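We close this part of the discussion by returning to an individual protein. The sequence in question and its structure tokens are set out directly beneath this paragraph:
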Amino acid sequence: MRPLPALARSPGRRGAMCRAQGDAVAGWRGRRLPGTVLLLLAYVGYLLLGSTAFWALEGPAERQSAQQLLQGKWELLGNYTCLKGPALEGLIQGIIKAYKSGHTLQGNSTSLGRWDLVGSFFFSISAITTIGYGNLSPNTVSAQIFCIFFALFGIPMNLILLSRIGQLMLSGVQCCAKRLGEKLRWTCALVTGFLLFLLLPPFLFSVIEGWTYAEGFYYSFVTLSTIGFGDYVIGINPDLTYPSWYKILVSVWILFGMAWLALVINLCISLLENSSDLCQCGKKKSKELDQELMDCNKNSSPSPVDVENGNSTVNQVIEIKCCIFIL
């Protein structure tokens, strides 16, 4: 009979070795940050990146614009000495308030039309879709109270409608998948939606609103993503005459475009969740190997085969932990 190896004849030494390897594995685990903390750090870092970019890009232009405005004010007061500074500022504030309410000066008259039937319909769309451009808002108390209840019931209804439209779009994608193949279905959906909802609408805005193509594309994405800054809004230029079908067509485009963009966002979320599932799979495998390591510590009378299996298990644990730490 072959003599047992020295490690097999000394259970205490073997247990000490297993405990040492377990401490090493625990050390690797302690160095790995939880996924939520990493996501939070990435989120804050992304916000800091955006803040720095906007500060560098918009800061100089803002300071230059403010300087030009102040210079224009003093030139106006210098050329027309009969004007008083406080009176001029009061007039400017009144013009700004009137503009926010939808009124603009046109010679000796003011422009109306934002609260006609078509304008009110477009405002209702922007309210329940949570776009909220901010260029138009109800001023009377009764309209403000009605807006609260209108949005309270309209937002869930809008979400349900977007879900149904998204399902119809997904059904169309699946029909295309049967003909084009599984690999091309999402490519077809992304390209078609990108063409219909982001690439073609800027041409319409360029013709009717007089915007550049880049401005129209910017407005399209800001609208469909419900960011709604309000710096570009359709149908508010008092110098233009808009077709009666224009705002209705844009409203339909908003509904279907938001549904398509929701599908794209869900696709991105699925990709992120799949990568998270891979990490969870690695965690599960790691826990199973940890349990085997604990069972290895409890054994008091090992055999040569157990010793070899224990050493192999320890090596596997260290390799898995190293891989998870690197990921």
Observations:
- Confidence is low (pLDDT under 50) at residues 1-9, 305-327.
